[in-house]
Amino acid sequence: VKAAVFASGTGSNFQAIMEKENLGCDITLLVCDQPEAKVIAKAEALHVPTLVFEPKQYASKADFETMIRDKLQELDVQWIFLAGYMRLIGPTLLQEFEGRIINIHPSLLPQFPGLDAIGQAFRANVEQTGVTIHYVDAGMDTGPIIAQEKVPISKTDTLEQLQQKIQQVEHRLYPEVIQSLVNNNQ
Ligand code: GRF
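^ thats the input. predicted complex w/ 5-O-phosphono-beta-D-ribofuranosylamine below
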């Protein structure tokens, strides 16, 4: 089974997925919409082919998603794992990969969707936040939830400490969930 990871930034989750033993699928492509993103060098170091594009060079989302879809079809990719891909997925990819696009979000959805979810939780003074893995639909962080894990916020936590705690959970949970999803779908 082949899969693609979509990312826009640092790529620590991409790295964690790549390092998981017996993941159950091959990550055959990294799709990235930010030519300067650090994730690109990580993919190159791991010999994962990359598809890097600039959205502003396309007339519409449908145009660049059609380009991506054609590449994924050519490679026979079955699954898309979003790992810090900072765009909504449009109808072109949603139709082709219905039920096979997964996202990770650093909060206990439906709390704190959207940008800077960790900062949102930190400033809200809640006692816990966490990590959610969910199916992607047309909304922003709204699809059906697959797995969640809580992360307590202690009164002494700085934002940086909270970020670290959440990342640790992300890097363990996302590869585990991917492994069980692909194994249950074969
Ligand atoms: C992660 O916190 C993920 O939950 C969110 O974006 C961040 C990506 O971080 N969707 P990285 O690029 O994987 O380091």
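Residues 7, 9-14, 83-84, 104-106, 170 surround 5-O-phosphono-beta-D-ribofuranosylamine (CB under 6 Å).
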